[in-house]
């Protein structure tokens, strides 16, 4: 079965990629990922907080400092746990490039424009094949407009584009008033792919001890539905490559994502839960299913369930919405 796909200008033998996670934090795991047939690997992000820690020589736990990066808080390792300051991160890129042949996508999560552009350059020099910009910002002031927040994001993409030649993916949250418009804006500034979507590790509240409790739960397949909808809306309407991240656990999930329009499937939770051979299993099961259904290639299946291929998507969407609402009643 021809599962070939193109993502970020990289010719991949199939769409299954190891998503940003601690899997890239150890060379033995990276080798296992290659052995399992991963088409590429995204590194865990270098967070600006790590750069600051490094520069200030601090070793404090991430949860103890003011953060605007809610997603980062729960999986951002303390400097002493992972010992990945910016220099070590760049060294890790070089080591991974030497250790394996699969493409390596570095990941950056900054706060200041200067950091984004400076470290993007370093990552390019260290040999990364592409760069994933992990955009996340949580506005808290009523004075800050959505236009300003989005404008900052667009400027980050523009300036990073100007400073590196690397293919650029932008990992996004689902929280946009008009995602298609934002996607167009980053496409105009030179982004090459959108990664749909960042997943948030939302702190809970301990009501007895009056504490915020960080929680890191792995995903399940239900989280895929939001991604499917947006992939289906964007597919064919943007020149950006589309990667899915979040909720792909089975071959069926992966097939749905491709049908909705994904060029690349990033796996994390399922690999952390079942180990790296899970990637091989999903790839084989997808190929087998496609053979049974007489597909010739992944390309043939890609986007086949996108909104562009539905005759009247708005009508379908409205009609379904109404039907679902009307199907509920209160137990007597
Ligand atoms: C332990 C752990 C560490 C992660 N580290 C990062 C990271 O450094 N950068 C990033 O962009 N995403 C990170 N993520 C998010 C994943 O890349 C992915 O987007 C998310 O887990 C959803 O995919 P999944 O359902 O396959 O897990 C991490 C996730 C987990 C579970």
Question: Could you explain how this protein is built, in words?
Answer:
One of its GO terms (cellular component) is cytoplasm. Keywords: Flavoprotein, FMN, Oxidoreductase, Pyrimidine biosynthesis. One of its GO terms (molecular function) is dihydroorotate dehydrogenase activity. One of its GO terms (biological process) is 'de novo' pyrimidine nucleobase biosynthetic process. This protein has helices spanning 27-35, 48-56, 70-75, 79-82, 86-99, 113-126, 146-163, 179-188, 224-234, 251-260, 269-274, 277-292, 298-301, 313-326; strands at 5-7, 10-12, 16-18, 41-42, 46-47, 104-109, 130-134, 168-172, 193-196, 204-206, 211-213, 241-245, 264-267. The protein has 332 residues and is of the alpha/beta class. It has a single domain, classed as Aldolase class I (TIM Barrel, Alpha-Beta Barrel), CATH 3.20.20.70. Helix 8 (179-188) links the parallel strand 8 (168-172) and strand 9 (193-196). Helix 6 packs parallel to helix 7. It is globular. Mean pLDDT is 88; it is low at 58-82. It binds flavin mononucleotide. Flavin mononucleotide is lined by residues 19-22, 44-45, 75, 107, 134, 171, 199, 218-219, 245-248, 267-269, 272.
